[in-house]
Structures are given as structure tokens and as C-alpha cells.
Amino acid sequence: MTTFLTSIFPLLAYLAYNIIVPQIEKVRPSLSVIMNMQRRRWVANATRRESPFDAILSGNIMGSVSFLASTSVLLVLAVFAVFGQLPALMEALDSLSLERTYSVLDVQIHLGVMLTMFVLAFFAFTLSLRQFNHFCIMLGALDHDRVTTEDEVEAIAQMNGLGARNFNSGIRAYYFSVATVAWFVSEWLGVVACLLTVLILAHREFFSSAHRTAASAAVLAARHRKDAA
What are the helix (H) ranges across the chain? Predict the structure, then answer.
């Protein structure tokens, strides 16, 4: 039972993180929330210019998401390939200094967990790619012959934010998949790696230098808008 719980622990931690962090963001803005403010500024500024600049930015973002989505497919195929090479994998695990010997069923269950993580990453990245595609269409549909309303700007920025949220979800799946790899060495090492992943992600979202820099930029932008008004 312990082996099973430690095996699925990274998956449970990943799902819990995606549920709990949005609740924390209501009290303390994360880096993602702060960057959503910048996305709104981007759209507001895009309504006032007619140049390929915004298309280039959007294309660069979509290229990164597409690359990671393709990588997820390769990882899914790799896990399927490992299922067909279980005897060789068991021999490799026996050569490691493990705390205990895993059974074939234990390894199969854990490979299923890894497969689930990479499938979730794939769906997150492809959904993100689709939402960024919608963002590009909405951005391209802007009519520069009239003043864009605040509601339109907000809707387009929200679409960009949705794409970013799913992109972050896919990245987190990659981070937590590191803990699933550590499990092969030791089941408790996998748990420790998972907890460290949570701490690292929480630090980057709420306490990192990037968070402080983005927050400072948001404050300066707010002051500039206030002075301009």
C-alpha cells in the first residue's frame, strides 16, 4: 500500500497544486496574476498600433507551446515503449541501490502514473495552443478605425490569460514528472522530490525576484496611468 501511495503521490500533488494555488492567488497575487495585468496592457497598446509587432510576439509564444506539446507526444510514446521492455527495465532497477525491490505490478502502476502526467501535459499544451490561436484571431480582428471598448480589451486579454494558465499547467506537469523518475531510485526519494517541486514552484510564483520585478513594473504602470489621467 505504501508503494502505491508513493507512486501516485506526484500526480495527486500536481492536481492539488492546480486547485490550491488559485485560491491562494485571491489573497496574494502570484507572478501569473501580475503578468495578466501586463497582458491587458499589451492588448490595450495593440489597439493603438498597426504593425506586425504583435503578430511576431504571438507567433513566438505559440512556437514555444507547440514545441512542448510535440515533446509531450514523444514522452507518451516513450512510456508506451517502456511497457514493452519491462524485463529489461526490471533488470536495470535491480542494479540500483533500492530500499526495496519493486514488483512488476508496482512498476506498471508507476508507468501508468507517468503516462497520465505526460498525457495531462499534452492536453494542457494543446489547449493552450488553441487558446493562443483564438487570441491571435481576436487581436487581428481589432478595428483600428474606432476606439476599442474596455470590454473588448478585457475579453482579448482574458483569452491570452487562459492560454498562459494552461501553458503553466503543462509546465507544472513536467516539473512533477521529475518526482516520478526519482521514485525508481527510492519511493521516498520520489516523495521528497515532489515536495521540493512544490516549494520551488511556490517560491517562483510568490517570492521570487521575477515576482518582485513584475510587481514593481505593474506599480509603475499604474502610477503612469494615474498621472496621465
Answer: 2-24, 31-46, 53-83, 86-94, 104-140, 150-182, 187-206, 209-228
